[in-house]
């Protein structure tokens, strides 16, 4: 079959077209669906990290688009089209333009990371809500911030984005990026001078149409770094969401938006001090409780204040003093938290307690923790533990 004429490469801004249906057959990868080949198409097929276009062929929604090894583009629809008929196509332009912004923005950022640090783009995918970019080298936050700044300078410069297939003689002398050796015609993209890369995707006409490039996150990945990047409207929406979150956090902390970090540090320092005070109080309570506990006798106690760590401290202190079984309880979460110690095996006692009162928990032979339902009868629990 003759390769499909690729209107999306010739005129990336073309939204509608008319074409002849060349073939229509059952879709081999989707039972019950059909796939149609046209003599020409503006629908971009999935590839090169960029998702396919969606839209309409006549009154049939286009659900997926792929290109085969012979260069034929196939469009998935729920119903068949008739070979020989002329069909009107219309792509989902909002989706296409978003992909063009993301792809061009990725080129700009990747080119700058390469020129600044020698970092290679080893993985790329336009996902949702962000674009994934895998970079070959570990990069610091300052290095990424510098690259992001220069990338946005390129956007502001509004330079032309050129896509073309150079002759092989010219190609040999061009310093273009490519993840692998390429044979035959090689389509290059010059992203405003920031990047020269082999690419089959669709791109905006000038760097200014990218709008904004924002690195949302970075994490170590396979010896390099994995970036989540947003461009254009996605970047605008991400910044709006972050600013709204900053305003909300600032209101809760009684500071202006953008100054939450200082307030949170102060809050964490105060929290650390409170934790130290609580630990000291719970240690004192554990010591007092152990001192009052009768030696060599089982102990069951109910408290109102301790957290799970406080219960642990009390239980272990009493068990050390008495050398006998100890069970202590306090309200916690949605139930009655407990800590158990038993000279024989706390796990056996823990299982029996949970089975009898509908609790959950476990631990080691010497010590277990868990919780019972909030409405557990305390007298029945105490009697059970003292009779066991």
Tell me what the structure shows.
By secondary structure, the protein is α+β, with helices and mostly antiparallel strands. The protein has three domains: about 5-90, Beta Barrel (Elongation Factor Tu (Ef-tu), domain 3), CATH 2.40.30; about 95-250, 2-Layer Sandwich (Threonyl-tRNA Synthetase, Chain A, domain 2), CATH 3.30.980; about 275-385, Diaminopimelate Epimerase, Chain A, domain 1. About 35% of the residues lie in helices and about 30% in strands. It has helices at about 5-10, 95-115, 140-155, 170, 230-255, 260-290, 310-320, 345-355, 380-385, and strands at about 5, 15-25, 35-40, 40, 55, 60, 65, 75, 85-90, 120-125, 130-135, 160-165, 190, 195-200, 215-220, 225-230, 300, 325-330, 335-340, 360-365, 370-375. The strands form five sheets. A seven-stranded antiparallel sheet has the order 6-5-9-2-3-8-7. Strands 17-18-19-21-20 form a five-stranded mixed sheet, sandwiched between helices. The chain has a four-stranded antiparallel sheet with strand order 10-11-16-15. It is elongated, with a radius of gyration of 33 Å. Keywords: Metal-binding, Zinc. This is Alanyl-tRNA editing protein. InterPro entries: Ala-tRNA-synth_IIc_core, Alanyl-tRNA_Editing_Enzymes, Thr/Ala-tRNA-synth_IIc_edit, Transl_B-barrel_sf, tRNA_SAD.
């Amino acid at each position: 079959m003759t390769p499909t004429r690729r209107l999306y490469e010739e005129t990336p801004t073309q939204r509608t077209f008319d074409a002849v249906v060349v073939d229509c057959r059952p879709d081999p990868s989707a039972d019950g669906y059909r796939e149609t080949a046209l003599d020409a198409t503006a629908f971009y097929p999935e590839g090169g990290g960029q998702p396919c276009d969606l839209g309409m062929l006549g009154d049939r929604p286009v659900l997926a688009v792929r290109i085969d090894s012979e260069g034929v583009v196939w469009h998935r629809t729920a119903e068949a089209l008739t070979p020989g008929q002329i069909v009107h196509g219309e792509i989902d332009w909002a989706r296409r333009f978003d992909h063009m912004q993301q792809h061009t923005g990725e080129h700009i950022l990747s080119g700058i990371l390469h020129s600044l640090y020698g970092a290679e783009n080893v993985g790329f995918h336009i996902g949702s809500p962000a674009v994934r970019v895998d970079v070959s080298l570990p990069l610091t936050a300052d290095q990424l911030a510098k690259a992001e700044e220069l990338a946005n300078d390129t956007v502001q410069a509004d330079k032309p984005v050129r896509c073309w297939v150079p002759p092989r003689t010219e190609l040999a002398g061009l310093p273009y990026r490519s993840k692998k050796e390429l044979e035959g015609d090689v389509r290059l993209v010059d992203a405003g001078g920031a990047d020269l890369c082999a690419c089959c995707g669709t791109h905006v006409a000038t760097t200014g149409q990218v709008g904004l490039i924002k690195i949302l996150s970075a994490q170590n990945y396979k010896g390099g770094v994995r970036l989540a990047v947003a461009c254009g409207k996605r970047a605008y929406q991400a910044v709006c969401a972050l600013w709204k979150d900053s305003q909300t956090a600032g209101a809760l902390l009684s500071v202006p938006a953008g100054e939450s970090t200082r307030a949170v540090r102060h809050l964490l320092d105060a929290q650390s001090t409170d934790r130290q005070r609580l630990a000291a109080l719970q240690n004192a309570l554990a010591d007092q409780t152990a001192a009052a506990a009768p030696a060599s006798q089982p102990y069951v106690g109910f408290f109102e204040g301790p957290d799970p760590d406080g219960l642990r401290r009390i239980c272990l202190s009493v068990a050390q003093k008495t050398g006998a079984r100890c069970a202590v309880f306090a309200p916690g979460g949605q139930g009655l938290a407990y800590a158990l110690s038993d000279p024989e095996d706390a796990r056996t006692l823990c299982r029996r307690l949970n089975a009898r009162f509908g609790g959950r928990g476990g631990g080691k032979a010497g010590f277990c923790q868990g919780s019972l339902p909030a409405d557990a009868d305390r007298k029945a629990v105490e009697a059970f533990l003292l009779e066991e």
